[in-house]
Amino acid sequence: MSIPEFLLEVSIVVISVVSLLTNMSVLLCFTQSAELRSHVPGIFVLNLSFSNILLTVINMPATFLGVAKSAKPFGDLFCNAVSFSETFITTNAMLSMAALSMDRWIAVVFPLSYSSKMRYRDALLIVAYSWLHSLTFSLTQLMMDWGGYSHTYASCTVHLDAEEASQLTAYATFTALFHCSSFALCLLVLCFAYMKVLRVARSHCKRIDVITVQTLLLLVDIHPSVKERCLAQQKKRRQRASKKICIFIGSFILCFSPYVVTRLVELLPSVHIPRYWGIATKCLFYAKASSDPFVYCLLRQQYRKVLVSIISRFMRKDQYFMSIHSTSSTLDTTDDNCIARIT
Q1: What is the pLDDT of residue 35?
Q2: What CATH number did the domain enclosing 113 receive?
Q3: Can you give the pLDDT at residue 234?
Q4: How far apart are CA 61 and CA 82, in angstroms?
Q5: pLDDT tens digit string along 295-322?
Q6: Per the domain annotation, does 123 fall within a domain?
Q7: What are the distances in angstroms from CA 127 to CA 34, 60, 91, 102, 298?
Q8: Is the separation of the CB atoms in 52 and 23 below 8 Å?
Q9: Is residue 280 one of the residues assigned to a domain?
Q10: Hey, what long-range contacts does 212-218 have (CB within 8 A, 24 or more apart)?
Q11: Does any domain span residue 265?
Q12: Torsion angles phi and psi, residue 248, rounded to 5
């Protein structure tokens, strides 16, 4: 085994473990918090978390075996099923991210009419469209028999065999349309929604900055350290929205664009994609599943509070059972000593 292959295998294992733990933590928070379940965006978060868990359980182990064996990990039937699931799951996950961005745009730009514009029924309809959209491409791929093992990516994915060169035009059209309606569409929605959110956030920051400056001018006897602290908080407030939006859009582009561009470039007959590059883009593609819980959930105060309360309850129960065990062992020791003295 070469060093690059070993590093790629370790990367897949680490990404799988982190993705499974973090996405399961998100689901655990939903089961334990009625407040999180009452929010409409929770439907999109659940859909995204389920997609990431399925990708972690089904596709990542298959890719790991493909890298380790340098060959097809299982038979043709299983490989076609894994390829079908990858197309469906990744498309559904991207559309869930786009739905979350649109929900945030409506909540920030139209706060007074948010409850009427985004209801549970509307969210369920969006999720149903996401499933229908994903099933359309995955079923098309299955019927055209374009799923199989790709040595370039060491995984079961959308793939056209060399003996099916006559279908190259149809396959290229399908691939281009698939990535345009998933990656490109979702990126366009993310950029539109979060740019609108950023514009509103900056306008609010300007209003707060004006009030802050006027207040500091009126308070002549205020200590210089207090002024510096207020100005520092003012600067952090301006940068906070920009940082969050850069994380939302940047993580999407960083994780998905290398893989998508590689899949489009390989359609050219004269281009050969190196195997290590293909697997590396696949690992980066999988990394999005492990980063989504942090980007959308676990770094937010509501989720952190629920997660901390779950951990603290678990720790208290563990300490309670340990105290009961220690008490019972002490009583058993005392009884043994009493019996020994009597005898």
Answers
A1: 85
A2: 1.20.1070.10
A3: 64
A4: 10
A5: 888 888 888 888 888 888 877 765 655 5
A6: yes
A7: 21, 24, 12, 13, 22
A8: yes
A9: yes
A10: none
A11: yes
A12: -60, -55
Rg of the chain over all Cα atoms, to the nearest angstrom: 26
Asked whether the predicted pLDDT for residue 96 surpasses 50, the reply is: yes
**CB of 297 closer than 8 Å to CB of 248:** no
Beta partners for residue 148, in sequence order: 157
Map residue 1 onto helix, strand or coil.
coil
Nearest by Cα to 258 from 222, 290, 285: 285
How many domains does the chain divide into? 1
Q: Which residues of 273-294 are buried (b: 16+ CB within 10 A; e: fewer)?
A: eebbebbbbbbbbbbbbbbbbb
Span 55-82, mean pLDDT? 89
Query: First and final CA of the chain: distance in angstroms?
Result: 68
Residues 256, 182 contacting (CB under 8 angstroms): no
Q: How far apart are CA 83 and CA 78, in angstroms?
A: 9
The strand pairing partners of 157, in sequence order, are: 148
CA 312/CA 314 separation, integer angstroms: 5
DSSP reduced 3-state for 172: helix
The boundaries of the domain holding residue 33 are 3-187+258-307
Handedness of CA 308, 314, 320, 326 (dihedral sign): negative
Is the residue at 275 inside a domain? yes
Task: Copy the structure tokens of residue 144.
Answer: 């055209």
Q: What is the pLDDT of residues 165-220, one digit of tens each?
A: 778 889 999 999 999 999 999 999 999 999 998 888 777 666 665 566 556 555 55
Amino acid at 9: E
Name the pTM for this structure.
0.84
The pair of three-digit structure tokens given for residue 120, joined into one six-digit string:
């549970």
Q: Is the pLDDT of residue 125 over 70?
A: yes
Token pair belonging to 72 = 């097809």
Helices (H) and strands (E) in the chain — how many of each? 12, 2
17-67 residue pLDDT tens = 999 999 999 999 988 888 888 888 999 999 999 999 999 999 999 999 999
Token duo for residue 223: 């200590």
